[in-house]
C-alpha cells in the first residue's frame, strides 16, 4: 500500500503539462481575435506567433501584458450527487516583447519572455480526490531571442532559440493518520530547464492575402534535485526518506501552425489559424529517486497522450483611426485519453470565445485589452492509475491588458 501511494504521488506533477495547461496567452491583440496571429502582421507578439513576420514590422516595439487566469472546475463522483469545486485562485501569465532594427532595413532582432504553460489548481483538503491532489502551482517561462530577415518585399523568414525555466509546487494528502486523526501531507517542489527553437515564414500573395507557417520545437525540460517533503507519523518516517530528491525529464511538445490573413476593406481584418500540438511524444513519465526503500522504487507510469488540434478564427474592425474592436473563437481537441484524465488538468475538448479592443493613446503608445471564456466539455472518466472515477466540467475566465510603445 505504501509503495502504491508513493508511486501515485510521485507521478503527479508532470501530468499537468497537458492541453489544459497550454495557456496560449501570448498577445492581447491576438487573444481578442481568437488567438489568431500566425498569418498576421500585428505587433511585437509576432516574436512568438511568427518570427518570420518580425522583419516586416514597420516599427520597433517594446510591449508588456498580463492575462490573469481563473480556472473553475467541478467534479461529481460516480454514483453520487456530491459536487466538489476548485477554489478561485488567479494565475498570472504574462508577456514581454522587444523588437528592434534600423528603419527600412532587411533585418530585425526580437526578444520575448512569455508563459506558454502554467496554471493554478486548488481543490482544497476536504474532497474525495485529496489523496491524488490538493493543490498545484505550475509555471513555465520561455525566453526567446529571435532574428528575422526580409528576403524580398513579399516574404520574410525568422527563427529563435528558446530557453525554458519551469517550477512546480504540488501538495496532496497521504492516508496515514497521526494520533489526532490528521492525514499525512506530501509536497513536491522543484525547478527545471530545457532548450528548444522556433522558426517561421511569412509572405504576402498578389491578391493581398497574407500567409504564415511556423514550427515551435519540442522542449525537453529536466527537473534535477526536486524536493519531496513528507509529513507522516513518526513510526512511518523510515518509509519516507528525508531529505530526498528526484530527477525527471518532461517532453513538452512541438507545435506546427498555419495562419491566413484576409483584408476585405481597410477597416476589416479576418484571420484563420490551425495548430497541431505533438503530444504523442509523451508516452511515459519516469522518475529516478536519490534515495529508495523497498516501498519507494524508481517508477515508470504510462501517459499515452495523443496529438491535439486547434482551429481558430478571428476578426478586427477599425471603427476609427484610434480604435479597433476584435472578436473570435475556436475549438481545441484534448490530448488526454479517457483513462488518463487527472484533477491537475481535467482536460477535455473545449470551445472558447474572445473579444477585445485597442486604443491608440498617442502616436507611439497603444493600449490593448481582451477577454476570453473557455468551456471544457463535460467528461466522465475513471483514471487508470488512481481509480478516481467521476465527471469533470470546467470553465476558464481570462481578462487581459497590454501596453505597446512603438517608434
Topology:
Elements (H helix, E strand, L loop, with lengths): L1 H9 L17 H5 L13 H4 L11 E6 L2 E9 L6 E2 L4 E2 L2 E7 L6 E16 L12 E18 L2 E20 L9 E21 L5 E7 L2 E13 L12 E9 L2 E11 L2 E10 L6 E6 L9 E4 L5 E11 L4 E10 L17 E13 L2 E18 L6 E18 L1
Pfam families: Toluene_X
Subcellular location: Cell outer membrane
Protein name: Long-chain fatty acid transport protein
Q: What would the keywords be for this entry?
A:
407 residues; mainly beta; Porin; 14-stranded antiparallel beta barrel; 57% strand; transmembrane beta strand; long-chain fatty acid transporting porin activity; membrane
Question: Mind explaining what this structure looks like?
Answer:
This protein has helices spanning 2-10, 28-32, 46-49, and strands spanning 61-66, 69-77, 84-85, 90-91, 94-100, 107-122, 135-152, 155-174, 184-204, 210-216, 219-231, 244-252, 255-265, 268-277, 284-289, 299-302, 308-318, 323-332, 350-362, 365-382, 389-406. The chain has 407 residues and is mainly β. It has a single domain (2-406), classed as Porin. It has a 14-stranded antiparallel beta barrel with strand order 1-5-6-7-8-9-10-13-14-17-18-19-20-21. β2 (69-77) and β3 form a beta hairpin. The longest helix is centred in the N-terminal third of the chain and has 9 residues, at 2-10. It is found in: Cell outer membrane. This is Long-chain fatty acid transport protein. Pfam families: Toluene_X.
Amino acid at each position: 500500500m505504501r509503495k502504491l501511494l508513493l508511486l501515485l504521488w510521485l507521478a503527479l506533477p508532470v501530468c499537468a503539462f497537458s492541453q489544459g495547461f497550454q495557456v496560449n496567452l501570448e498577445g492581447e491583440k491576438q487573444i481578442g481575435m481568437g488567438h489568431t496571429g500566425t498569418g498576421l502582421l500585428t505587433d511585437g507578439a509576432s516574436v512568438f506567433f511568427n518570427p518570420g513576420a518580425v522583419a516586416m514590422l514597420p516599427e520597433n516595439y517594446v510591449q508588456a501584458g498580463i492575462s490573469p487566469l481563473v480556472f473553475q472546475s467541478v467534479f461529481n463522483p460516480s454514483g453520487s450527487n456530491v459536487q466538489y469545486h476548485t477554489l478561485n485562485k488567479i494565475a498570472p501569465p504574462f508577456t514581454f516583447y522587444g523588437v528592434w532594427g534600423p528603419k527600412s532595413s532587411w533585418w530585425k532582432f526580437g526578444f520575448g519572455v512569455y508563459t506558454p504553460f502554467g496554471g493554478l489548481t486548488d481543490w482544497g483538503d476536504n474532497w474525495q480526490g485529496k489523496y491524488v491532489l490538493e493543490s498545484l502551482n505550475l509555471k513555465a517561462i520561455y525566453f526567446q531571442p529571435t532574428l528575422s530577415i526580409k528576403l524580398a518585399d513579399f516574404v520574410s523568414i525568422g527563427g529563435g532559440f528558446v530557453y525554458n525555466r519551469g517550477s512546480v509546487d504540488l501538495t496532496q494528502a497521504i492516508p496515514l493518520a497521526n494520533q489526532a486523526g490528521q492525514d499525512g501531507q506530501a509536497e513536491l517542489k522543484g525547478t527545471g530547464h530545457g532548450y528548444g527553437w522556433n522558426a517561421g515564414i511569412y509572405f504576402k500573395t498578389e491578391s493581398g492575402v497574407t500567409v504564415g507557417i511556423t514550427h515551435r520545437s519540442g522542449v525537453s525540460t529536466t527537473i534535477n534535485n526536486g524536493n519531496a517533503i513528507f509529513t507522516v507519523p513518526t513510526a512511518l518516517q523510515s518509509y519516507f526518506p528525508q531529505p530526498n530528491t528526484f530527477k525527471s525529464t518532461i517532453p513538452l511538445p512541438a507545435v506546427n501552425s498555419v495562419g491566413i490573413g484576409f483584408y476585405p476593406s481597410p477597416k476589416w481584418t479576418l484571420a484563420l489559424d490551425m495548430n497541431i500540438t505533438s503530444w504523442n511524444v509523451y508516452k511515459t513519465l519516469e522518475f529516478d529517486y536519490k534515495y529508495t526503500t523497498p516501498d519507494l522504487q524508481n517508477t515508470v507510469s504510462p501517459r499515452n497522450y495523443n496529438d491535439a488540434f486547434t482551429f481558430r478564427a478571428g476578426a478586427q474592425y477599425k471603427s476609427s483611426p484610434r480604435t479597433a474592436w476584435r472578436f473570435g473563437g475556436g475549438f481545441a481537441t484534448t490530448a488526454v485519453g479517457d483513462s488518463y484524465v487527472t484533477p491537475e488538468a481535467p482536460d477535455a475538448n473545449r470551445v472558447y470565445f474572445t473579444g477585445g479592443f485597442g486604443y491608440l493613446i498617442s502616436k507611439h503608445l497603444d493600449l490593448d485589452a481582451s477577454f476570453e471564456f473557455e468551456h471544457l466539455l463535460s467528461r466522465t472518466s475513471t483514471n487508470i492509475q488512481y481509480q478516481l472515477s467521476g465527471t469533470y466540467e470546467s470553465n476558464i475566465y481570462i481578462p487581459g491588458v497590454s501596453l505597446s510603445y512603438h517608434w
